[in-house]
């Protein structure tokens, strides 16, 4: 018989309390936690060192440079790089259903301007990492990724790619989601629950980029194109676990026209509990504005007023009563190209099945709920958008929507 919800919550609180009791005589700062040696407080580090099968881990790096910042040399129509540029680069590792699975491999996949994906496959022997206090990175082949920047040397090797991509990018003024004993970054206290299907982390809401990339294609006999990323903007997140949820909506942009440095992140998902056969709607969202984090999540008491999804746009409204903020978001994906991305499937393989747009447009309005003061009313460009699975289930069951047939949500 399943435990009552109250007992489950009590068990989680008790487990956190044990950790708190062992550290209450010490000063517990975020820096202490991040250097404690416990990976749960260090989401940027590789989490899968002890995993042998049924596991994936991926880091999502997004780079954007606008018309005003871009310098393009030798550009032609073949790569459709026409003065503005957005790119996602995702390194990671996948371990199949058996320890010696032929499907286990490391990877890097790339999409430019929301066009086709390029998937570079590597052997597990070509994946390495550093998790020391002084040095944190992952390396896939000749490509290195860290919190401070990336070094790329990608070329096709009889895999699903035809892009040659090289360059070095350095990040400045990164801004991570803070961690504490009771709020494990984007996951909040839910991050303490063992056996989660998928764990998410926001490693940097926004940062400045400096460096250059060279791009060419093996499809066409053309000279490499050089792209200046100086003064571009970046964003970094990650996922790790057994598999993606069956249903989710994801939105991200940090390219607001009148509020440089402001970043929006939204994730709404259908979440299975690890111990029982229950599934719950949950969401976590945040605005990074003027160097301050404003979270909106089910674990923080935020509630949805409305969620609408159509073929042309996705509209979401949410309010967080405790902090007296309200956000209204409208995402326009009309006439926006989408690319089919690789993701783990059935714990056995990686294959393309997730559609993502990288050039959607977001209208964000952030309001002080009590005073009515409008803090942000702006348009965000180059928005990442994924709408996957039975989204109507989220519309019907999202916490805060009346009536709701769910007792709790994560």
TrEMBL record:
It holds the Pfam family Tocopherol_cycl. Keywords: Signal. The keyword Membrane does not apply. The keyword Signal applies. Residues 1-21 form the signal peptide. PANTHER family: PTHR35309, TOCOPHEROL CYCLASE. This is AttH domain-containing protein.
């Amino acid at each position: 018989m399943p435990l009552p919800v109250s007992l489950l919550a009590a068990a989680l609180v008790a487990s956190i309390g044990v950790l708190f009791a062992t550290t209450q005589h010490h000063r517990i700062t975020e820096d202490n936690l991040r250097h404690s040696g416990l990976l749960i407080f260090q989401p940027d580090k590789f989490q899968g060192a002890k995993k042998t099968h049924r596991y994936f881990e991926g880091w999502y790096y997004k780079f954007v440079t606008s018309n005003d910042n871009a310098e393009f040399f030798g550009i032609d129509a073949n790569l459709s790089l026409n003065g503005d540029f957005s790119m996602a680069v995702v390194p990671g590792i996948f371990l199949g259903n058996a320890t010696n699975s032929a499907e286990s491999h490391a990877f890097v996949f790339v999409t430019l301007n929301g066009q086709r994906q390029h998937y570079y496959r590597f052997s597990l022997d070509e994946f390495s990492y550093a998790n020391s206090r002084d040095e944190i990175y992952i390396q896939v082949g000749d490509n290195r990724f860290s919190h401070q920047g990336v070094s790329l040397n990608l070329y096709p090797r009889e895999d699903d790619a035809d892009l040659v991509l090289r360059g070095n990018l350095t990040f400045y003024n990164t801004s991570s989601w803070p961690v504490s004993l009771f709020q494990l970054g984007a996951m909040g206290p839910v991050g303490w629950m063992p056996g989660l299907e998928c764990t998410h982390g926001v490693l940097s809401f926004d940062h400045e980029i400096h460096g250059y990339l060279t791009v060419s294609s093996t499809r066409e006999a053309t000279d490499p194109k050089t792209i200046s990323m100086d003064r571009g903007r970046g964003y970094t997140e990650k996922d790790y676990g057994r598999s993606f949820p069956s249903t989710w909506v994801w939105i991200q942009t940090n390219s607001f026209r009148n509020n440089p440095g402001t970043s929006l992140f939204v994730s709404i998902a259908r979440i299975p509990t690890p111990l029982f056969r229950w599934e719950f709607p949950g969401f976590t969202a945040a605005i990074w504005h003027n160097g301050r984090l404003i979270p909106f999540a089910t674990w923080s008491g935020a509630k949805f007023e409305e969620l609408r999804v159509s073929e042309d746009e996705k509209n979401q409204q949410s309010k967080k009563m405790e902090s007296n903020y309200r956000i209204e978001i409208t995402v326009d994906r009309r006439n926006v190209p989408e690319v089919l991305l690789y993701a783990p499937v059935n714990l056995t393989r990686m294959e393309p099945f997730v559609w993502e747009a990288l050039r959607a447009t977001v209208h964000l309005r952030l309001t002080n709920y009590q005073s009515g003061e409008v803090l942000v009313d702006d348009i965000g460009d180059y928005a990442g958008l994924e709408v996957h699975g039975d989204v109507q289930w989220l519309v019907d069951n999202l916490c805060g929507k009346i009536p709701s047939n769910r007792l709790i949500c994560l």
